[in-house]
Design brief:
Elements: E1 10-13, E2 20-23, E3 39-42, E4 59-60, H1 62-67, E5 78-83, E6 85-91, E7 99-101, E8 105-109, H2 117-125, H3 127-135, H4 147-152, E9 154-157, H5 160-216
Parallel strand pairs: 3-7
Antiparallel strand pairs: 1-9, 2-8, 3-4, 5-6, 5-8
């Protein structure tokens, strides 16, 4: 990304637009145990490539959640994976709550009156931010990025209305892309059906021809 920004944009950092950047802990390290149901305990593998949170299999109880109060999640928190798999990004939605998380996911929280949560989400998924994450990796056996590194990520910040416009344009393009992928899948399915029809017809023609030759003999 060019360092030359439009006149009404500013250069800033993730830390400067955030109210809080933190991470969670492992409950078993403090003598707590996981449960079969209760409060969702989100891990990196629960965040998909589109930023959605799903397939939760680990839960904690209310006592554990209160003890791990630093990492109690709120709506619009951004999650950024900082251990093992680096750079996976998610957004916490209302239906994901109540939830908590561990030390492999950084929690980025803002009042969102300065920055559109989805603008920051898409920016953190971009090559511009992902390169900064890759350049901050330390560790030999298990890669990790520190919360300080996350805070220091440089980001371009346009005025809020422009952020909204950028987000709308990105999501419009994604919608078109999804529609194109669906159309392609339909074409592929039709081609497969056509191929099967051609194959069946060819086999039937060969059988008929074989019978004719046998009759002529």
């Amino acid at each position: 990304m060019s360092e030359i920004l439009p006149n009404n944009w500013i250069k800033t950092t993730v830390g400067e637009v955030s109210n809080r950047i933190t991470k969670g802990s492992t409950p078993t390290s403090y003598g707590f145990s996981y449960k079969k149901d209760g409060i969702k305990f989100i891990k990196t593998e629960n965040v998909d490539q589109n930023g959605n949170i799903h397939n939760i299999k680990t839960y904690i109880d209310e006592e554990t959640n209160k003890f791990l109060k630093r990492s109690i999640l709120k709506k619009n928190d951004i999650l950024f994976s900082i251990a093992g798999t680096i750079g996976r990004v998610g957004i916490v939605k209302e239906n994901d709550l109540p939830a908590n998380t561990n030390q492999a996911l950084a929690i980025i929280r803002s009042s969102w009156d300065l920055i559109d949560v989805r603008y920051l989400f898409y920016l953190l998924r971009s090559n511009y931010a992902q390169r900064q994450a890759s350049g901050s990796i330390v560790g030999v056996g298990r890669a990790n990025v520190s919360l300080t590194n996350i805070s220091d990520f440089k980001i371009p910040l346009p005025p809020l209305p422009e952020q909204h416009h950028i987000v709308a344009k990105i999501e419009e393009l994604f919608t078109r892309l999804d529609a194109g992928i669906d159309a392609l899948k339909q074409v592929q399915a039709q081609l497969q059906r056509n191929r099967q029809s051609v194959l069946i017809a060819a086999v039937e023609d060969l059988i008929i021809e074989e019978r004719r030759e046998q009759n002529n003999d």
